[in-house]
Design goal:
- There is one protein chain.
- The chain is α+β, with helices and mostly antiparallel strands and about 200 residues long.
- A hairpin with a 4-residue loop joins strand 4 and strand 5.
């Protein structure tokens, strides 16, 4: 994949929202988030939280350039916002809703006219701790696998008091030789591939 436009999610979005995709002036966005230590030292456990917006309408060589990314939020430390990230994100989410539903009047310099620009958030990009905060999906416990969802096959190891996830062969094609290999968990993997998360 050279550009997100080649992805199935982009094509599926175009099929569902044809009126949005017809107008090339409408903007497709990605939201990236991560924490960082502003003091550049590991001895201080202070962390701030960045939320960046990436515009995917540009060609691949411009998409990720710093001058085309927008700093939407800078959540101060000294600790991670945790579940309170919803409070910080609420104004951004409201702006994104307004851009989707109503759009915003924008000036097109090439045509010397104004138009109603709409925007859609297609992806969120984060590491697993950020994924937990943004989506509300727990990455601990019995249902920790984001791919398997409610079909997560987990086992509790009573002596180490930890959860173990051994059955990842279920994500392979049915004809894959590793599905019949018993060295992973002592049994053949006969289950079908879990349903993908949507929405």
């Amino acid at each position: 994949m050279r550009h997100p436009a080649h992805d199935e999610a982009w094509k599926s979005f175009d099929r569902l929202h044809g009126d949005f995709s017809v107008d090339s002036c409408n903007v497709r966005l990605g939201l990236a988030s991560d924490d960082f230590n502003p003091f550049r030292t590991m001895s201080i456990s202070h962390s701030a939280w960045l939320v960046m917006m990436v515009v995917y309408n540009f060609p691949p060589w411009l998409c990720m350039k710093p001058e085309y990314t927008m700093l939407s939020l800078l959540i101060p430390g000294p600790q991670s916002p945790g579940n309170d990230i919803d409070v910080y994100l609420q104004p951004l989410i409201q702006d994104l809703r307004d851009l989707w539903e109503f759009g915003v009047e924008t000036y097109d310099v090439s045509k010397n006219e104004k138009f109603q620009m709409h925007a859609a958030l297609l992806w969120t990009i984060s590491d697993y701790p950020g994924y937990v905060m943004l989506s509300g999906w727990s990455t601990k416990g019995r249902l920790a696998c984001a791919c398997c969802n409610y079909d997560t096959n987990s086992s509790y190891l009573k002596h180490s008091h930890k959860m173990c996830y051994m059955d990842h062969c279920g994500l392979l094609p049915m004809s894959h030789p590793w599905r019949s290999n018993k060295s992973f968990n002592g049994k053949k993997e006969l289950r079908s591939t879990p349903h993908k998360l949507e929405g």
